[in-house]
């Protein structure tokens, strides 16, 4: 894999570029003289040209190519756009304001997106509705269909979604190992750090003191997952803080699991009112109860995505350390059908 190329003889600018590259988790090649860039020009995934050498580079007549940017520490220099045209650059990035943009450009060049992961959030309309079981079951179903899937446990008070999978002893990072991370995270690093079972990777909680998920940490995880996964399933708590808001804003669909009874409908109405402020596509997944599911869906003004069939002895199954029964079971067929409405399946 070829590395991005920086062309500059400005030591202060180079120090900035090396720091930004480190934040992106990327190593770069450096040419201190414009002529020395020729061997790297055509093969580097991204070329970052310092404003100090842009004219020298133009004089060498480099062949046209994509993914060239000029970077400068001087704001508002009118000559910089002339130099941009002269070397065929696509943009002028002024530091420090454009540091975040450059981190993303370097990271994307070093690890291009191989997938376009669909983010689906799952929330319980009330406590004990079964959102965690549905989240784990959707993720398992997708991974068994050959979809690269990340299952994110965003509920620090849920006891750990790895327990639902029967994988609480699996080695790998949990949220406390991730929350301090800021900036871009590569999917390969995330995948390597987390417990992975076939096509399913799991980010769960440990059994220690719970903590909030910072917005930056959730953003970094979901950005990495969308680049490397087909599907990202996020199991959310009913309260919405910064991390939860970030996940909901990125969701293509949010499933609200609602028991079809009076208390379930009333609690879900409050939950839906909160969720509407953060996400667009809300869908109700109903569990059979004393009220007709269509009546509950209509009362919530949320389209019904399906009615979950009862799963016999589910608690006993999970307590044994076995995952939810899927495959050809009624619940397994339900999850397969629901998945097909959320993402293209093989």
From TrEMBL:
This is Septum formation initiator. Residues 121-157 form the CobQ/CobB/MinD/ParA nucleotide binding domain. It comes from the Bacteria. Residues 7-114 form the Rv3660c-like CheY-like N-terminal domain. It holds the Pfam family CbiA. Gene3D superfamilies: P-loop containing nucleotide triphosphate hydrolases.
């Amino acid at each position: 894999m070829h590395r991005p190329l920086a062309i500059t003889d400005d030591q202060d600018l180079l120090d900035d570029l090396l720091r930004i590259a480190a934040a992106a988790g990327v190593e770069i090649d450096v040419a201190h003289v414009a002529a020395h860039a020729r061997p790297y020009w055509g093969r580097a995934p991204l070329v970052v040209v310092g404003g100090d050498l842009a004219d020298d580079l133009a004089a060498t007549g480099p062949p046209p190519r994509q993914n060239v940017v000029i970077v400068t520490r001087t704001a508002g220099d009118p000559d910089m756009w002339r130099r941009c045209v002269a070397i065929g650059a696509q943009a002028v990035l002024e530091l420090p304001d454009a540091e975040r943009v450059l981190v993303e450009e370097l990271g994307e060049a070093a690890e291009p997106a191989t997938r376009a992961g669909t983010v689906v959030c799952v929330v319980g309309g009330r406590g004990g509705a079964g959102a965690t079981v549905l989240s784990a079951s959707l993720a398992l179903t997708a991974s068994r269909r050959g979809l690269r899937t990340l299952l994110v446990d965003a509920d620090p008070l849920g006891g750990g979604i790895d327990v639902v999978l029967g994988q609480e002893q699996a080695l790998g990072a949990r949220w406390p190992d991730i929350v301090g991370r800021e900036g871009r995270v590569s999917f390969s690093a995330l995948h390597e750090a987390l417990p992975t079972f076939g096509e399913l990777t799991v980010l769960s909680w440990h059994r220690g003191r719970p903590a909030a998920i910072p917005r930056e940490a959730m953003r970094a995880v979901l950005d990495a997952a969308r680049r490397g996964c087909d599907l990202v399933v996020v199991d959310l708590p009913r309260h919405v803080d910064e991390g939860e808001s970030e996940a909901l804003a990125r969701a293509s669909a949010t499933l609200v699991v609602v028991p079809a009874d009076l208390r379930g409908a009333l609690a879900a109405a409050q939950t839906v009112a909160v969720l509407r402020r953060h996400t667009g596509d809300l869908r109700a997944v109903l569990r059979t109860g004393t009220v007709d599911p269509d009546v509950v869906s209509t009362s919530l003004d949320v389209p019904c995505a399906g009615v979950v069939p009862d799963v016999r002895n589910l608690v006993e199954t999970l307590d044994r350390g076995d995952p939810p029964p899927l495959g050809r079971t009624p619940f397994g067929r339900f999850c397969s059908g629901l998945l097909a409405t959320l993402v293209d399946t093989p």
